[in-house]
Amino acid sequence: MRNPPLHRYATRPGLYFTDDGGADVVVRSETAGQVWLCVLESIDQPSAFFQDAIRLFSDPGTSFIQQIHEFPVCTRIIEHLYLRETLFRMDGPNYGLWYVHLPKAWDGMRYGYRVDGAWDPKHGVRFNPYKFLLDPYGKGVEGAMELDPATFSYACEVKDRKVIGSAYGEMSTVDSLGHVPVSVAIDDRDVHKHEGDPDHPHVPWRKTVIYEMHVKGFTANAPWLPEELRGTYAGLAHPITLAYLQNLGVTSIELLPIQAKQDELFLQEHGRKNYWGYSTLSYFSPEPTYATKAAQEKGATAVRQEVIDMVRALHEAGFEVIMDVVYNHTCEGGVEGPTICWRGLDDLAYYRHQKSNAGRLEDTTGCGNTFDFTNTHVVTFAVDSLRYWAKRIGIDGFRFDLGVTLARLNGEFTQHHPFLYALRSDLLLGNLKLIMEPWDLGNLGWRTGQFGIPFAEWNDRFRDTARTFWLQDVDGSSDFGRTQMQEMATRLCGSADLYATDPGRGATASINFVTCHDGFTLTDLTRYNSKHNEANGEHNNDGSSVNHSANFGVEGVTKEPEIIAAREQAAMNLTGMLLLSLGTPMMLAGDEFRNTQDGNNNAYCQDNDITWMNWDWLYSPHKTREMRRLETVSRLVALRKSLDLYHHEDFFTRLTQLGLLKPSDRVKWFLPNGQAPIERDWFDLSTRSFTMRLLSNSEVDVCIVVNGVAEDRQFHLPADSKWMPKWCSAEVNGRWPGHGDHVESGDAAEDISVWMQHVQNANETVRRLAEQARETAAAGDGVGIAGAFGDAISGPVEGAATAAAPGTDASDADNVRTAEFRAVRSSRTAAGSGSASGVSTGAAADADSVQSAEDTQLLRMTAALEMVGNAAAAAVHDDAEPSAAADASGESADKPAPLDDNVWTMPALSITLMKQIQL
Q1: What is the pLDDT of residues 216-236, one digit of tens each?
Q2: What pLDDT, on the 0 to 100 scale, is given for residue 798?
Q3: Which of 280, 438, 449, 267 is nearest to 371 (CA)?
Q4: Distances from the Cα of 249 to the Cα of 561, 613, 878, angstroms
Q5: What region does 140 belong to: left with phi over 0, alpha with psi -120 to 50, or beta?
Q6: Any bridge partners for residue 86, and if so which?
Q7: What is the Cα 101 distance to its own chain's centre?
Q8: 371: which strand partners?
Q9: Angle, to 10 degrees, between the axis of helix 847-874 and the axis of helix 239-248?
Q10: Is 437 part of the annotated catalytic residue set?
Q11: Are 792 and 772 in contact (CB under 8 A)?
Q12: On the CB side of 593, how many CA atoms lie within 13 Å of its CA?
């Protein structure tokens, strides 16, 4: 028996190009009265629909909406927008879907919808055909919302950037076209589109090290990039950017949202931007402002191609790409917000409404609305979007913002939610990395550890334990802390109390982190006791007030060397615990080089130097604390990746029902005196020093030695082996575990940075750059400083330089910027794109010499990056030449102990990795 012929139209919403030169268009609206597809064309070009469309003219006695009801296809001229809008009446609803076949369609076609129906806002029905709506399945987007009465479905006015009107009042009759973004069609039918794609890295969970970053913020100030690539997808794909990430050693790049976004109404009213991007405008379209200007000018297809090329470049460099996604709410906000898409298509179907008041929306997100994931079609919409990004763009995994909201059934969380099962069972998505943020703002919203296989989850217990032990307890200057050894041991061993929920679920389900985009950076954790969010314009009332941070006696930046040293070591203690714990570590971009947000722990609206990475430290002639931290962190990442002890998904140990650690053949515990802890030691708050030995049948053992007291302390390591230190948090301050009764130390003041050792006479270079920059700024001729670099520097990078002030040692100040650097920076800013053009200031320079200089600079930058990587790689080998004293640069050689003694003195307040010596 033959199957019946397929229905003419696709059964999934979207725009599908057809072989006849047209397209099938499908959209969902379960309760609408009528839906129109609207195609926009410029009026200075012939229309593709001239023979089909009836021309509409203004009629004082008939509204525009009444006219479009009369004809299947009609068109009107909008002179002030220089546009022609052609409207196609769609057929439906057929199981909630509306259909139309478009006789002609093309790549780059701008389109949207108008929807008519009942206006009854008190019952959650808000249809308004005067509002031009995006296609929820649209693959491209163009334009942005304006703060104008036209963008709201209810009648209102805007005075002093404030919207005045009632969401339950009369329907607005002002056309929103021209004030809202529009969808852009992308022809995606090319059968060769995946040819040449690199293989996905497919990094196993047990070997994953995640690096969370913002596409724009990471490279917005990157001096190695031409001006036109800074802050873009292409800038992240640049070879030098990739080389930096490789030498840091991370495996998986987690990008803050890159789906198209729109600023919330609150931010628009206050003239600010949503920098983070957790306010989604289109779930199939990439954010166009992160693309290069050239791509933006070419249109949505070029923007998307730049995203695809970025993902390909990251894959070729060996990185996975994980995308942060926001399916819990949309940019439309509460009922008082604008009508851009879902509210106008079908408010009742897309959003959760209060049971007692259908006119109000449920809000478990703090953003005004919540997608209704009890509606099968909302689940389908989200899954279709995720599959598109995974299959077409090449994304390797997703992190779900406020994941608990996505798993609420009738308002209550359940790990058996249909959406979670849809993700698990999908042949494509179920095999990707799926990470949940396991909380929201709803009832019983904290659900860490409760999502089950195959989901990983952010571990806030790990974050709070690490911060409390290494910051709050230390800054309190008390012999007793707030953290038991039992709690520390549980976090170090993979948090079995939270994640051993299902048979086969392992420690890699725990995404261990100390910092993320939301909160203090690692440096700010050690600089500030309190948040400083005044720049956000909310009177410092936004952001969390519970940070478990410490300022070590001074709030903010200081020049006191003792405080700086204490802060640096505290930051490395947190990093050490993160990378030496079982589980999946996640680092925040910039933490590896002391990036700061000046105490702002909620910088979601700061699209400026507060959130953009500051790369000034690259150009100091001496090894700054930023470089010292970078090298220390990269060495630790390399060490973790070299140890098979971490390359499994089992927990090191589990807990008994009484909360005690079970005996384990994979880990053993010792107090500083070498004895095993007894029961009371696990819960004694004064027990802040211990040794954790990880045992292996296939490689040498390692010991993680925690000295949580403010004095150097002797530790008796297991006597059946000999040990040598491989990494210590105190090395950033030139201190290293010492054999016997003292700590090794060294002077780090004159170390030369590997980034600058190719520069001849670096101090003179900085002075010459500053002088030329001042002359350029004074002349106002618009010439950038890249030419000055071509003349004055034989070093790695064009575009910027910085150094400590004359006579100032890099270790004496927390963050010193000289007048010389400020002059260079101001010249760079004034010069615009010319500052990175590589054009020589010499009149005799020609194109060949400029290109040669650029190539030389890129080669030297790459060479410097390789040296950082080589230094990290050397740390994992045991054949380094032993040394009696530490190399304070952080590149210390291994120091095996004499064979007859196992007593080591650990620096105060430190965490150390000791490796067994193979005899």
Answers
A1: 999 999 999 999 999 999 999
A2: 31
A3: 280
A4: 30, 19, 19
A5: beta
A6: 39, 75
A7: 40
A8: 351
A9: 10
A10: yes
A11: yes
A12: 18
- Cis bond upstream, residue 129 (ω within 30): no
Q: Which two tokens stand for residue 331?
A: 């940019």
Q: Report the topology of domain 661-753+901-917.
A: Immunoglobulin-like (2.60.40)
pTM exceeds 0.85: yes
Q: If we measure between CA atoms, which residue out of 763, 724, 642 comes closest to residue 913?
A: 724
SS3 content of the chain, % helix, strand, coil (to 5): 30, 20, 50
Strand-by-strand arrangement of the 97-102 sheet? 14-17, 23-28, 97-102, 91-94
| SS3 labels along 99-113 | EEEECCCCCCCEEEE
Q: What is the pLDDT of residue 622?
A: 82
Distance from chain centroid for Cα 689:
35
What are the distances in angstroms from CA 849 to CA 207, 584, 791, 861? 45, 47, 11, 18
- 401 catalytic residue (yes or no): yes
Residue 376's CB is within 10 A of a number of other CB atoms, namely 11
Asked if the peptide bond before residue 4 counts as cis, ω within 30 degrees of 0, the response is no
Are 713 and 707 spatial neighbours (Cβ–Cβ below 8 Å)?
yes
pLDDT, residue 18, reads 94
What is d(CA 813, CA 802) in angstroms, rounded to the nearest whole number? 15
**pLDDT given at position 893:** 42
Distance separating alpha carbons of residues 915 and 644, to the nearest angstrom: 13
Convert the pLDDT of each residue in 120-134 to its tens digit.
Answer: 999 999 999 999 999
Distances in Å between the Cα of 379 and the Cα atoms of 136, 301, 349, 384, 422 are 13, 27, 11, 9, 8
Residue whose tokens read 């101090």: 763
List the catalytic residue out of 306, 437, 631, 854: 437
Q: How far is residue 886's CA from residue 795's CA, in Å, rounded to a whole number?
A: 29
Contact 428, 454 (CB under 8 A): no
- The radius of gyration of the chain from alpha carbons, rounded to an integer in Å, stands at 30
Backbone angles phi, psi at 255, to 5 degrees: -95, 130
863/737 Cα distance (integer angstroms) = 31
C-alpha–C-alpha distance, residues 102 and 38, integer Å: 10
**Residue 856 has what pLDDT?**
55
Residue type, 377: H
pLDDT at residue 307 in the model: 98
Structure tokens at 882: 């032993």
Could you tell me if 892 and 886 are in contact, meaning their C-beta atoms sit under 8 angstroms apart? yes
Q: In which residue are the tokens 């008041």 written?
A: 357
Q: Reduced to 3 states, what is the DSSP secondary structure of residue 95?
A: coil
Six token digits for residue 483: 């953290």
Structure tokens at 612: 């953009």
pLDDT at 415: 95
Integer Cα distance of 152 and 168 in angstroms:
12
User: Residues 205, 649: contact at Cβ < 8 Å?
Assistant: yes
Least confident of 137-151, 314-328, 874-888: 874-888
DSSP-derived secondary structure for 823-862: HHHHHHHHHGGGGGS---SSTT--HHHHHHHHHHHHHHHH
pLDDT value at position 253? 98
| Residues 655, 78: Cα–Cα separation, whole Å | 70
pLDDT of 758 above 80: no
Kindly name the residue from 212, 254, 401, 731 that is annotated as catalytic: 401
Token pair of 429 as six digits = 């998505």
Neighbours of 112 (CB within 10 A): 26
Confirm if 521 and 498 have CB atoms less than 8 A apart: no
Ramachandran region of residue 8, left (φ > 0), alpha (ψ -120 to 50) or beta? alpha
**Residue 484 near residue 558, CB atoms below 8 Å:** no
Neighbours of 645 (CB within 10 A): 19
For residue 162 the two structure tokens come to 């404030």
Distance CA 177, CA 179 (A): 5
Q: Map 139-184 to HEC letters.
A: CEEECCCCCCHHHCCECCEEECCEEECCCCCCECCCCCCCCCCEEE
Checking phi first, is residue 909 left (phi over 0); if not, alpha (psi -120 to 50) or beta?
left
